[in-house]
Amino acid sequence: MQNTLRGLLLLILIGLVAVLPFFTTDYYASLAVKIMIYALFALSLQLLVGGTGLVSLGHAAFFGIAAYFVTLLTPDTGAGNFFVLLAGALIVTMAYAAVTGALALRTKGIYFIMVTLAFAQMAYYVFHDTKVGGGTDGIYLYFRPELRIGDWTLLNIDNSYVFYLFVLGCLLLSWAFLAVLMRSRFGAALTGIRVNEQRMRAAGFSTFGYKLTAYIIAAALAGVAGFLYAAKDGYVNPELMAWEQSGLVLLMVILGGSGRLWGAIIGAVVLTMLQELFQSQSIFGEFAKNWHLPYGLAIIALVALLPNGLTGLPEQLRTRRARKAQLRAASAAQDSAS
Amino acid sequence: MDPIIFLIQCLNAIQYGLLLFLVASGLTLIFGIMGIINLAHGSFYMIGAYMAFALQPLISQYAGESFVLTLLACVALAAILGYFLEWAFYSYLYHRDHLQQVLMTFGLILVFEELRSLLVGNDVHGVPIPAWLQGSISLADVMTYPIYRLFISVVCIIVAGLLYWVLTRTRLGMMIRAGASNREMINSLGIDINRLFRIVFAMGVALAALAGAIAAPVSSVYPGMGQSVLIICFVVVVIGGIGSIRGAFLAAMLVGFVDTFGQILFPAAAGVLVYLLMAAILLFKPEGLFKQG
Amino acid sequence: MKKTFTYTALAAFFALGAAGQAHAVVKVGFMLPYSGTYAKLGEAIENGFKLYVQEQGGKLAGQEVEYFKVDDESNPSKGPENANRLVQRDQVDVLVGTVHSGVAMALAKAAKDSDTTLIIPNAGADAITGPLCSKNIFRSSFSNWQPGYAMGPVALDKGHKTAITISWNYAAGKESTDGFKESFEKGGGKVVKHLTLPFPNVEFQPLLTEIAATKPDAVYTFFAGGGAVKFVQDYYAAGLNKTIPLLGSGFLTDGTLEAQGESAQGLLTTLHYADGLNTERDNAFRESYSKNFPALPPDVYAVQGYDAAQLLAAGLKAVDGDVTKKDAMRDAMRDATIDSPRGTFKLSAAGNPVQDMYLREVQGTQNVNKGIAIKDLADPARGCKL
């Protein structure tokens, strides 16, 4: 019964999101698309952080590489084929993940965090300093890729509402994919690696292979998000791969709660809305330009007070209540004993 | 390359490396001894520079032109700030995992930058080089080398020596090193680990601030100067081995040379070289060049 | 909990999304840096713009002006969404922005996609009035190429035959040094080396050593902001200013003289504005600006903002204040003659000012006008199809 109720609620929620653009301005519909793209990006990182216990501070590299490649591979004269471009962008992204992952996974803990950061910085500097992609000024994607097979156009994603639904669809598909993945034997192995890698190795698992596969899958999903991002605004820039972006998506995962998959989605929504809130001139007036201050404080407070993220909040409150009850019971027992 | 030019470039590399070491040493101390990843370390560098800018006119007014006095004031103020910050904020980070530390100090960077913007504004400022350090010495008729840069290198070397002496020859240093390996033991020996950590943190902040203050006359004081130093610092610390001062020194020198000669020999790839260096070293020594200590 | 959250989110959307549509008002959206290194420039541009409107009695062509602001943080990756805040959320009629070229690129795309009029009061990316030129995009400032090109004849005049160019490895630096190279080599000079370092790196020592080793007749550079301060100081400290004259685009010494002090004295730069022009128009502008903003010096950024307002006013006057007549307004803006404090100028077909480039010399904390380097210099607008 619980599950049916939950399923129903989820369907209603999805339905509401799908019809949102009819009830709000273009700006907020566009913002919703951005949130969905970042939710997909955060989900991909969640596979690494929450699923496998690998904290990467360089995940934005895959987002940016895919975004750049869809832009670079699009012909000058007209729109490219979505499937061809996606395949091309993902191949490059996954190749980069395979090489850098193989090297990075030789390190652990803080060193892993730093190495992933380093590889992201390398990608950043390639696009920032060389002629590959227009340098610091970035490049335009003039034509959104077309979803067609041969001559048959599946969906006209040039239409902004169709694109909105398409992004929503990609997000839901990826979420479903990851949910199934985590429930499979592969996912169970990842969970085991996260909990105690040594034990897994003792049990005969080649943990390196599992970790690398997870790394590549996560990179591919981040690449899809980057692809959609480039298609959305038609402008890509090296800052998409900057370490601040990697930090931002990591924040989304943690804020939402790395324990649950949908925590990443919640995190993306909350963090983006927080940014909008603090930048809003109608609420903060003159101080809106100093929005980094309340934003930074909010980040600190949220990470400090919600170590398990927003999705872990019910559990956190439950544990606290249970502990309080325990203490009360203990002191009551003491009183009655004395 | 002309041998004289080569030597001058080496001098440039060493000077850059030494300054990097000053900042990185604070970071590796905090990281290694206290186990805290502090992304806001670059902000302390910036705070030092802005302090130098703000204090210099005040000190010349009341105590006469004294650059050394300004530097000492910056170090003292930074140490006090560090002591306070540890008590107010960082002490809550010990029991948290690295990820939470990363994110909370990430938020702290935003707070520091915005506070700086509110308090001091967004202008670019200069700090004047004191008269007794102005001028340059002639290097083989090719160019002159600013005396002030030599001063920076000398100060860095002195501080490095001081640091080494404190850590290896004093009781405080002994406690610090012991606390790093075994926190509980220290506590049970009756040494107040909390105060110890507070002192270490203050030292780390003071080192970064000193670097910022001493570099201010040549690098100017501007928003975002903390961020540019931060990443390179982390690279230095990771290459050198977390917690190792010796490692930080060697790594800083390596980075200085790679960066300097990289700019001349491979200008297009200059940004990437340092990261390639880090990746290469971590492949052979996944925990950096030196172990803690 | 999920449901409550969705409802609250929807309510929040509506609350934040309420935007009124008023008439007899021109909505101007500023997308400028209000934080970070370029904050002062953003402030100066906005001040200049508002000063002109104020001088017209607070109205342009009978229309009240309503201002909207977004801080672009000089971050190009946030460019599209920041632009959308002004275009979609606030629904501005005219966009004014920005300082950073990368952000300007994002802004130009958003303006093109939504058919909003855009006036750029600083960003000099050649591409914006080049391959990306468009009927709705105007610039009241300069193109990176212009000050560079103007310095070439000056260098040749002084007898320099060889030069080294040095800048950050980004579009603005490249376009400026390319401009210099074009006119310098056209007149018989030779740029022997082009040195770059990654943006925004400010460790110049290795490259200064390179310059000293190569011994060119002169050095031409483009740096701005904090980098400009440091470069000039380092150049001076290396003793190079005595043996190898340093020439630069005006931004090397604009807004940076207080910090540079002694090291900048005597430096020659080219720009479309200078101190001590001593024309009636400029004097009136400076007096008015200083009266209204006593803490800030009237600089080229304020002039660019001021002229952006003049440009808009010219357009509005032609359509009697009716912003919906976009084509007529834009045609009028393209054809307008702007009576600017820098001197009168018109726009090229691509939308960039055709203006005099002044040669300036640093004296004290002023960039003193030493005469016109090139008169009525037009950016070649390579790649523009207009």
UniProtKB/TrEMBL annotation, chain B:
Q: Does the keyword Ribonucleoprotein apply?
A: no
Membrane topology term: Multi-pass membrane protein
Residue ranges crossing the lipid bilayer per the database entry? 16-37, 44-63, 69-90, 147-167, 196-216, 228-257, 264-284
InterPro entries the UniProt entry points to: ABC_transp_permease (IPR001851), BCAA_transport_permease (IPR052157)
- What keywords are annotated for this sequence in UniProt? Amino-acid transport, Cell membrane, Membrane, Transmembrane, Transmembrane helix, Transport
Matching PANTHER family: ABC TRANSPORTER ATP-BINDING PROTEIN, BRANCHED-CHAIN AMINO ACID TRANSPORT SYSTEM PERMEASE PROTEIN LIVH
Q: What protein family does this chain belong to?
A: Belongs to the binding-protein-dependent transport system permease family. LivHM subfamily.
- What is the official name of this protein in its record? Branched-chain amino acid ABC transporter permease
Source organism per entry reads Mesopusillimonas faecipullorum
Taxon lineage? Bacteria, Pseudomonadati, Pseudomonadota, Betaproteobacteria, Burkholderiales
